[in-house]
Amino acid sequence: xxxxxxxxxxxxxxxxxxxxxxxxxxxxxxxxxxxxxxxxxxxxxxxxxxxxxxxxxxxxxxxxxxxxxxxxxxxxxxxxxxxxxxxxxxxxxxxxxxxxxxxxxxxxxxxxxxxxxxxxxxxxxxxxxxxxxxxxxxxxxxxxxxxxxxxxxxxxxxxxxxxxxxxxxxxxxxxxxxxxxxxxxxxxxxxxxxxxxxxxxxxxxxxxxxxxxxxx
Length: 216
Prior knowledge:
Layout: H1 19-31, H2 41-48, H3 53-59, H4 62-87, H5 90-104, H6 110-118, H7 125-138, H8 145-151, H9 161-177, H10 180-185, H11 192-207
InterPro entries: Homeodomain-like_sf (IPR009057), HTH-type_Tx_Regulator (IPR050624), HTH_TetR (IPR001647)
Keywords: DNA-binding
DNA-binding region: 40-59
């Protein structure tokens, strides 16, 4: 069973209150630029400025820390996805992309880490962790949501919900996995301002593609 983050025990000194957050942040910074095998618990702890024993205390081991980092990075998106399952509305569908853009611009290398990890062999521990977490987070998007969106009149009738889902996910992920050289060739830069402009553009693309336009 993949290691889950342990809850912080009561009674630890106040000086340790930020240790967990520092470890998660430092691990994210390192895992997004170095291969998994090159990121040691000692390196993470050194970057975080805490004792490496804190990794064992909070997460059990490197695998547990990696899983926690992935889960907590994706948590805001998970909340919006489950809201989409509950509401299946035009606004909730749009809000998932908005949230993804706003959260990922804080960690723009994270989407690339997800893609690279999912290309690893299934036997790889990093792949297993990422797939387990990703399956949980993306489950609402599979099999249910786009069928419900068609039934509720958000997605145009006659369209394949699976292909609509793929188009939707492509609009979300592509800006972050596009090589920086492509942006440079087009005199663009992946900034929050650019993403928000792209967000509005993509909403218009969806309206002219698979979204039913809401009445004013």
